[in-house]
Amino acid sequence: MPRKVDHNAIRTNQAFIITLLLLAFIADVPLLVVFVSIVLGVGTAVPQAALFKRIYKHMLVPAGLLKPDVIDDNPEPHNFSQGLGALFTGLSFVALLAGAAGLGWALSWLVIVLASLNLFAGFCAGCFVYYQLSRRHVPGFTQLPLHE
Fold it and tell me: Of 32, 47, 123, 148, which sits with the fewest C-beta atoms within 10 Å of its C-beta?
Protein backbone atom coordinates (compact mmCIF):
# COMPACT_ATOMS: atom_id res chain seq x y z
CA MET A 1 0.00 0.00 0.00
CA PRO A 2 1.57 3.29 -1.06
CA ARG A 3 2.45 5.90 1.50
CA LYS A 4 3.11 9.60 1.11
CA VAL A 5 6.64 11.01 0.85
CA ASP A 6 7.48 14.71 0.58
CA HIS A 7 10.05 14.85 -2.19
CA ASN A 8 10.85 18.49 -1.48
CA ALA A 9 12.02 17.39 1.98
CA ILE A 10 14.30 14.88 0.26
CA ARG A 11 15.58 17.49 -2.21
CA THR A 12 16.25 19.93 0.66
CA ASN A 13 18.19 17.21 2.45
CA GLN A 14 20.28 16.66 -0.68
CA ALA A 15 20.89 20.39 -1.11
CA PHE A 16 22.24 20.61 2.45
CA ILE A 17 24.44 17.54 1.90
CA ILE A 18 25.88 18.90 -1.34
CA THR A 19 26.46 22.39 0.05
CA LEU A 20 28.10 21.27 3.28
CA LEU A 21 30.34 18.70 1.61
CA LEU A 22 31.41 21.22 -1.03
CA LEU A 23 32.23 23.70 1.73
CA ALA A 24 34.15 21.00 3.58
CA PHE A 25 36.20 20.26 0.47
CA ILE A 26 36.85 23.87 -0.51
CA ALA A 27 37.79 24.94 3.03
CA ASP A 28 39.47 21.60 3.85
CA VAL A 29 37.34 21.12 6.98
CA PRO A 30 36.86 17.40 7.68
CA LEU A 31 34.66 18.23 10.70
CA LEU A 32 31.93 19.29 8.25
CA VAL A 33 32.16 15.83 6.67
CA VAL A 34 31.64 14.10 10.01
CA PHE A 35 28.82 16.54 10.83
CA VAL A 36 27.04 15.52 7.62
CA SER A 37 27.69 11.86 8.41
CA ILE A 38 26.21 12.19 11.90
CA VAL A 39 23.16 14.10 10.63
CA LEU A 40 22.55 11.43 7.98
CA GLY A 41 23.12 8.59 10.42
CA VAL A 42 20.72 10.02 12.99
CA GLY A 43 18.15 10.74 10.26
CA THR A 44 18.45 7.16 9.03
CA ALA A 45 18.06 5.64 12.50
CA VAL A 46 15.30 8.06 13.58
CA PRO A 47 13.71 9.63 10.48
CA GLN A 48 11.70 12.13 12.57
CA ALA A 49 15.01 13.53 13.88
CA ALA A 50 16.55 14.19 10.45
CA LEU A 51 18.02 17.68 10.95
CA PHE A 52 17.94 18.94 7.36
CA LYS A 53 14.37 17.69 6.87
CA ARG A 54 13.36 19.34 10.17
CA ILE A 55 14.81 22.66 8.96
CA TYR A 56 12.74 22.21 5.80
CA LYS A 57 9.55 21.34 7.69
CA HIS A 58 9.83 23.81 10.57
CA MET A 59 11.56 26.77 8.92
CA LEU A 60 11.56 26.75 5.12
CA VAL A 61 7.96 25.64 4.55
CA PRO A 62 6.42 27.94 7.23
CA ALA A 63 8.45 30.85 5.84
CA GLY A 64 6.91 30.16 2.42
CA LEU A 65 10.31 29.51 0.86
CA LEU A 66 9.39 25.96 -0.19
CA LYS A 67 6.17 24.04 -0.64
CA PRO A 68 5.62 20.33 0.01
CA ASP A 69 5.72 17.97 -2.97
CA VAL A 70 3.97 14.97 -1.45
CA ILE A 71 3.57 11.91 -3.68
CA ASP A 72 2.84 8.20 -3.33
CA ASP A 73 6.17 6.55 -2.61
CA ASN A 74 8.02 4.14 -0.34
CA PRO A 75 10.13 5.90 2.31
CA GLU A 76 12.39 2.88 2.91
CA PRO A 77 14.53 3.23 -0.25
CA HIS A 78 15.15 6.91 0.49
CA ASN A 79 16.07 6.09 4.08
CA PHE A 80 18.44 3.35 2.84
CA SER A 81 20.01 5.85 0.46
CA GLN A 82 20.53 8.29 3.30
CA GLY A 83 22.15 5.51 5.31
CA LEU A 84 24.57 4.87 2.46
CA GLY A 85 25.39 8.59 2.46
CA ALA A 86 26.09 8.35 6.20
CA LEU A 87 28.34 5.33 5.64
CA PHE A 88 30.34 6.92 2.82
CA THR A 89 30.75 10.28 4.57
CA GLY A 90 31.77 8.43 7.73
CA LEU A 91 34.39 6.48 5.78
CA SER A 92 35.45 9.74 4.14
CA PHE A 93 36.07 11.30 7.54
CA VAL A 94 38.03 8.27 8.75
CA ALA A 95 40.20 8.37 5.61
CA LEU A 96 40.79 12.11 6.06
CA LEU A 97 41.81 11.57 9.69
CA ALA A 98 44.14 8.75 8.64
CA GLY A 99 45.94 11.04 6.21
CA ALA A 100 44.43 9.47 3.08
CA ALA A 101 43.11 12.78 1.76
CA GLY A 102 42.66 11.52 -1.80
CA LEU A 103 40.45 8.63 -0.71
CA GLY A 104 38.64 10.75 1.87
CA TRP A 105 37.72 13.51 -0.53
CA ALA A 106 36.88 10.99 -3.28
CA LEU A 107 34.30 9.40 -0.97
CA SER A 108 32.83 12.81 -0.16
CA TRP A 109 32.72 13.62 -3.87
CA LEU A 110 30.93 10.34 -4.53
CA VAL A 111 28.20 11.46 -2.12
CA ILE A 112 28.11 14.93 -3.72
CA VAL A 113 27.74 13.45 -7.20
CA LEU A 114 25.05 10.96 -6.20
CA ALA A 115 23.08 13.54 -4.20
CA SER A 116 23.35 15.91 -7.18
CA LEU A 117 22.12 13.20 -9.54
CA ASN A 118 19.06 12.82 -7.35
CA LEU A 119 18.54 16.54 -6.77
CA PHE A 120 18.97 17.67 -10.37
CA ALA A 121 18.02 14.59 -12.42
CA GLY A 122 15.59 12.81 -10.09
CA PHE A 123 17.55 9.53 -10.05
CA CYS A 124 18.17 8.06 -6.61
CA ALA A 125 21.07 5.61 -6.91
CA GLY A 126 20.53 4.35 -3.35
CA CYS A 127 16.86 3.71 -4.12
CA PHE A 128 17.94 1.79 -7.23
CA VAL A 129 20.24 -0.39 -5.12
CA TYR A 130 17.47 -0.89 -2.53
CA TYR A 131 15.00 -2.06 -5.20
CA GLN A 132 17.58 -4.38 -6.77
CA LEU A 133 18.14 -5.99 -3.38
CA SER A 134 14.38 -6.23 -2.87
CA ARG A 135 13.92 -7.97 -6.22
CA ARG A 136 16.54 -10.50 -5.14
CA HIS A 137 14.63 -11.12 -1.89
CA VAL A 138 17.46 -9.95 0.35
CA PRO A 139 16.14 -9.92 3.93
CA GLY A 140 15.19 -6.45 5.14
CA PHE A 141 14.52 -5.10 1.65
CA THR A 142 10.78 -5.61 1.46
CA GLN A 143 9.39 -2.80 -0.69
CA LEU A 144 9.04 -2.99 -4.45
CA PRO A 145 8.76 0.04 -6.75
CA LEU A 146 5.23 1.45 -6.99
CA HIS A 147 5.53 1.84 -10.77
CA GLU A 148 7.53 -0.42 -13.03
Answer: 148
